[in-house]
């Protein structure tokens, strides 16, 4: 009842304000019909701020903004938040959206579904164990469609995602997936899993067929390359005839190496070895993995065109300016020796 009274009071305040504006000279009497149309269009309380900003004085505008903030606070207090920190992000939402959330929350509560969908989702994806709901709150206010879905829709979508072993942290980073029907989610993820992909992500439900097919292709290639190694680290250790600890040291020196796709690592290693570099050189110069294979190939061709046969890997991954200086110095020496 308190919120209903609030809605009525907001409407009445706005109606009177707009009426004063229409008859204060902002619109000529001769344009009364036009003014009446504008009044009708903006008679909803949710359009007040725009009218105030354009038509009222600064002082009156500030007063009305304070009224809107107070209205938000009254609505948010009815949304069953456990802490102020959980509720704070919701103040960024417009009154109209908050009223929609209020309506949904009260319906959920009356039907025994949950006290607030923020906590329902947090509990289902084990968010409480990872970080406070206030962090999830910041994300949910950007995905307010969650409060427009039927509770059955939301519950069914979450059930399928969790049953397909999509981790909670992946769900919270991609809440858009909850907008999809549970049958669509199930069919997409089942298809991906049946093709041998074990790690399932929400984006696999949302992406285009082309992107999904390419992702599946890469995953299958990765499994073929890794074989019994099971991880990129073990693959690199085996391929470079070294230990996992040495690979870990390489990760520290070149962080990009830790996230390199195994298909790219294999292609790069194949290329370097075909060009005559041995595993000891590669392990000793891990910075080469931070370079582009295409760039390295072009630089090798340029240096070899000058007659160089012994080439240090560090030269190939220098900055563009440093490499150009080195190349020009070698080119100058070559010309002098002719």
How are the elements arranged and paired?
Blueprint: H1 2-26, H2 32-41, H3 48-55, H4 58-76, H5 84-87, H6 95-110, H7 117-124, H8 127-130, H9 133-140, H10 151-163, H11 168-173, H12 182-194, H13 203-206, H14 209-226, H15 232-239, H16 244-253, H17 255-258, H18 262-274, H19 279-284, H20 293-304, H21 313-316, H22 320-336
Helix pairs in contact: 1-2, 1-3, 4-6, 10-12, 15-16
Descriptive notes:
It is a single chain. The protein is mainly alpha-helical and 338 residues long. The protein is built from 22 helices and no strands. The longest helix is centred in the first third of the chain and has 25 residues, at 2-26.
Please summarize what this structure is:
With about 350 residues, this protein is mainly alpha-helical.
Instruction: Tell me about the largest β-sheet.
Output: none
Order of helices and strands: HHHHHHHHHHHHHHHHHHHHHH
Helix content: 55-70%
Class per helix and strand makeup: mainly alpha
Total number of helices? 22
Measured by DSSP, the beta-strand proportion falls in under 5%
Rounded Rg: 31 Å
Q: Report the principal-axis shape.
A: elongated
For this entry, give a set of tags.
338 residues, mainly alpha
């Amino acid at each position: 009842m308190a919120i209903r009274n609030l809605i009525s009071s907001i409407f009445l305040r706005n109606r009177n304000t707009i009426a004063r504006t229409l008859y204060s000279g902002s619109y000529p009497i001769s344009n009364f019909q036009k003014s009446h149309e504008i009044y009708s269009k903006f008679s909803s309380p949710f359009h007040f701020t725009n009218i105030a900003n354009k038509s009222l004085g600064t002082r009156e505008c500030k007063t009305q903004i304070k009224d809107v903030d107070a209205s938000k606070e009254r609505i948010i207090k009815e949304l069953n938040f456990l802490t102020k920190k959980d509720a704070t992000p919701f103040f960024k939402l417009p009154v109209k959206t908050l009223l929609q959330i209020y309506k949904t929350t009260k319906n959920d509560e009356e039907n025994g579904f949950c006290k607030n969908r923020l906590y329902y989702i947090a509990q289902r994806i084990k968010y409480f164990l990872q970080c406070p709901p206030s962090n999830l709150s910041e994300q949910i206010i950007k995905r307010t469609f969650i409060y427009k879905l039927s509770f059955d829709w939301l519950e069914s979508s979450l059930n399928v995602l969790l049953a397909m072993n999509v981790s909670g942290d992946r769900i919270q980073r991609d809440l858009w997936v909850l907008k999809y029907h549970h049958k669509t989610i199930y069919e997409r993820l089942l298809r991906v899993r049946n093709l041998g992909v074990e790690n399932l992500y929400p984006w696999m439900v949302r992406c285009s067929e082309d992107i999904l097919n390419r992702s599946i292709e890469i995953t299958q290639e990765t499994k073929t390359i890794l074989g019994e190694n099971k991880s990129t680290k073990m693959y690199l250790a085996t391929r470079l005839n070294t230990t996992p600890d040495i690979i870990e040291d390489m990760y520290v020196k070149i962080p990009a190496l830790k996230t390199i796709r195994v298909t790219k690592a294999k292609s790069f290693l194949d290329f370097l070895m075909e060009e005559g570099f041995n595993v000891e050189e590669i392990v000793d110069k891990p910075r080469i993995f931070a370079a582009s294979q295409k760039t390295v190939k072009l630089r090798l061709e340029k240096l070899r065109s000058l007659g160089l046969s012994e080439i240090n890997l560090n030269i190939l991954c220098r900055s563009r300016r440093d490499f150009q200086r080195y190349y020009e110095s070698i080119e100058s020496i070559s010309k002098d020796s002719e």
